[in-house]
């Protein structure tokens, strides 16, 4: 009996030791990194002054009200770019995912090529995409659209491919057993089964792209990102704060709508 | 009707899953394949409509070797071979009637199949088949809301939509409760007796095999160890089928 208790205590002591060790390692990593950067930890003590400055300057005031009209207009542009890029990428992704998924691919080489292609697109950060595309397409909405499009294409192809592979081969075989063709199996079997999952990926991506479109706009000089930059650099902090507020409202609204659609579908 | 000769299959190129399997299935009869798990029952069934490509042998369905067919010929041959599964393999978000209509995809053009352009005649047949399996009132229900027994009956209706000469049943009752088991097995037996369809069933349950089968094939370790009328299935024969290594020595060679 006693030895059991000892054994148990021993077990918990070891667990506690591991947790302590983990905390010590994390602390040491922080100290090491901030020494390397010459980061002065004591400046964190003055953080409240910084926040107070932010609040004083960025709270929209009487003067920034006049900017509403322009902000809403640009916000809509940004939103439309995000939706267009996502839906356009979704259609092409679905096609790529079907011929790329291991369970449906006509040849395994095609599957590997598509996998590599999508991971290449996906792993270039959106900011890098925007800057690269700026050279060829200059500052306009198309540049932002393309940057979002390529990133989304990479991401959705991968997500759709995994959804299709999770679907398995059993039901595909069941339809093949009736004598159905490849395309019939896809349209009559695969798509109805994965439609809800596809839809929730697309909605997720629209949410994400509305956020990213703001950032991309900052670089490509379009949409709500551009006017934020403009107001900010011309010291109109109140108006810039209003832009941030409107972006938050848009993102939250999109998220709520997408949750609602998700619930209606399932 | 269906004759399988010297069928062989190996999944990894070394250990044989099937070694030299031969048997025949006759019209209007219920043929049951029994044997321990992993004996190769599923492999046999799926080789018949070539969902699994076998390595060697001959599968004569209406005097044509299924193994020699090209893609479109195979499609046409599959139209006359119905199949039902342990996990039903219905398209769950679709309704029962849509799933039944999938049974005639093989006879339709690509586009008609993709866009669900079924003729009135096909729709009427589908409804009649649902009535036949006792699910007329469930025609417009999503399959995900049906019970296991109901799903399996939709599966049977889908197979019947193909106007099959033979129905392959891969463990059709393994996921069902006792009551649904009887309903499903009764339907399958009626198909053999009344419609003259050959029914080939993989089973685990020996008692069900005894009750419903006309003809029993025992498989152990990838070989046929029993092939006779059900009356000949004695207790000794069953022990033989389920015994480990109840096969002629030559198959043991692969194990050691």
Automatic annotation (TrEMBL), chain A:
It comes from the Bacteria. The chain crosses the membrane at residues 21-39, 75-99, 120-137, 143-161, 182-203, 215-232, 239-261. The keyword Cell wall biogenesis/degradation does not apply. One of its GO terms (biological process) is transmembrane transport. Residues 75-258 form the ABC transmembrane type-1 domain. GO terms for cellular component: plasma membrane. Keywords: Cell membrane, Membrane, Transmembrane, Transmembrane helix, Transport. Pfam families: BPD_transp_1 (PF00528). It is a multi-pass membrane protein. Its main location: membrane. This is Phosphonate ABC transporter permease protein. Belongs to the binding-protein-dependent transport system permease family. InterPro entries: MetI-like, MetI-like_sf.
Automatic annotation (TrEMBL), chain B:
GO terms for molecular function: ABC-type phosphonate transporter activity; ATP binding; ATP hydrolysis activity. GO terms for cellular component: membrane. InterPro entries: AAA+_ATPase, ABC_transporter-like_ATP-bd, ABC_transporter-like_CS, ABC_transpr_PhnC, MetN_ABC_transporter-like, P-loop_NTPase. Residues 2-246 form the ABC transporter domain. It comes from the Bacteria. Keywords: ATP-binding, Cell membrane, Membrane, Nucleotide-binding, Phosphonate transport, Translocase, Transport. Pfam families: ABC_tran (PF00005). This is Phosphonate ABC transporter ATP-binding protein. It comes from Secundilactobacillus mixtipabuli.
